[in-house]
Every structure is written in structure tokens, then in C-alpha cells.
Amino acid sequence: MALVTGAGSGIGRAIAGRFVADGAEVLSVDLVLPVDAPGTPHQADLSSREGNRAAVQAALDAFGRLDIVVANAGFQHVSPIADFDEDRWDGLLSILLTSPFLLAKYGWPALTAAPGGGRFIAIASAHALAASPYKAGYVSAKHGVLGLVKTLALEGAAVGITATAVCPGYVRTPLVERQIADQARVHGLSEERVLEEVILAPHAVKRLIEPAEVAEVVAFLAGPGGRSFTGVPVTMDQGWTAR
Ligand SMILES: NC(=O)c1ccc[n+]([C@@H]2O[C@H](COP(=O)([O-])OP(=O)(O)OC[C@H]3O[C@@H](n4cnc5c(N)ncnc54)[C@H](O)[C@@H]3O)[C@@H](O)[C@H]2O)c1
Given 3.40.50.300, 3.40.50.2000, 3.40.50.720, 1.10.569.10, which CATH number is that of 2-171+210-236? Predict the structure, then answer.
């Protein structure tokens, strides 16, 4: 029984679809869910405390228990620091850091009671481990969520809960497609050159990761093979942080 946030698009949609294909019940949470989204749809704004509380309650109401929480919802904002919009900063911290905290807090009793041991999985980023210019809010929040996961791992050890932060490099999703357009504007380059010279520049392997590859790693972490992974970044970054 799983709750996946940001399940209406990109990585979250691939994770929810993978869980459903593997036979799990999934509450798919997002601001907007397409009609063909996998799992049981639950509309919520996760930038509010009420939205996070209601999402956990909806999973418990639907399934009677909650074994896996995947905190994935997010967005990006690209801006030089001097112009960085303060409301966008608050929004990034709220969805990328505070929502995972609230989901863990509200879901903790259910994860503690999960028969095979609860799993808390944050979709962080290579930006939890390394910075890029113009991404102050995103990089700060992603470093923060890795700290949250480490803390949850220590608190969860005694009650069978593991906590991990999956740290992908660039994945082919609408979020990256929007960044290509934003970076083209900031750098004054064509979108083709941005993909080659800016987006994939930190990757040793010059290939976008597919959402299904992230879902595969999450399925492993959520399954029996993942039980020894806790308090760590699970890095899949095409060699980015090897430098
Ligand atoms: N795409 C990448 O290259 C990449 C790389 C590393 C990490 N990530 C992380 O993976 C996660 C998913 O990213 P994606 O690329 O699939 O993006 P995406 O834009 O395709 O999907 C993100 C989803 O989050 C939802 N969301 C945003 N704000 C919300 C809110 N307030 N309440 C509820 N839902 C909200 C959106 O509606 C959207 O459906 C994010 O946390 C992102 O930082 C992405």
C-alpha cells in the first residue's frame, strides 16, 4: 500500500505505474491528475499542511494501512540569486522539503505498523549532493531533504522503517523540458545547445535518464532487496558526482 506524490506527471507517474503493475495499491497524489493516471487519484496541494495530512488520511481510508511513502512532487525555478523571487523560494522549500517532512510525520504511525517494515523514499536529486548556479532554492531544498532522510533513518531504525533519497541526474520529464526553455533564456542559447552544453554538461554519460529507470530503482528500494538501504542517497547520476 503506497502513497506517491507528484503522480500526475514524469517520475511520479512512472513510479505509481510501476507499483500498480507490480500489484500494489497506490494513492496517486497531485495538484491535477490526468484521467488515465495509474492508481487511486487524490487531488491535493502539498504546499499546505492540510494537503499533506489529507493525503495520508486518504491512503489510510482507501487501503486501511500505508507501507510506502514516495515523496516526489516538485518543481524547479531558475534565476540568478539577486533576482531570485522570494515567493518562489518559499514555494520550493514548501514542496521539496516541508511536504516530505509532513508526509513522514503524519505517516509515521502507519509506517511503523507496516507488516514488512515501512519505507520512506524521497525523490531528491544529484542536486542533493552538488550545486548548480541559478538554482538556489532547489539545491538548498534537495540538500535539506537528504538531511531529513538521514534523520528519519536513525529514528526509524528501531521500528523497522527505512528512509532513502534517490538522487537522479537529469530525467526526461516535463520538468526538464521546462528547464531547457528557462536555461535557454538565462544563457541566451538555443534549446539544442542548452541540452548538450548546459543540461547534460555535468553528466559523464551524455544521456537523459528515463522515468522508468527511476521507477525501477524505487521498486527495488520498496521491495525486500532494499531493506539494507537506509539513511543514504541512492545516486543514479550518470557519473555527475564522480568528478
Ligand atoms: N526530471 C529530472 O531531471 C529530475 C532529476 C532529479 C530529481 N527530480 C525530482 O523528481 C521529482 C519529480 O520531477 P519530474 O521531473 O517528474 O517533474 P514533473 O514536473 O513532470 O512532475 C512533478 C509533479 O509534481 C506536482 N506538484 C508540483 N507542485 C505540487 C503541489 N504543490 N502539490 C501537489 N503536487 C505538486 C506537479 O503537478 C507534477 O505533476 C521532483 O522532486 C524533482 O525535483 C527530477
Answer: 3.40.50.720
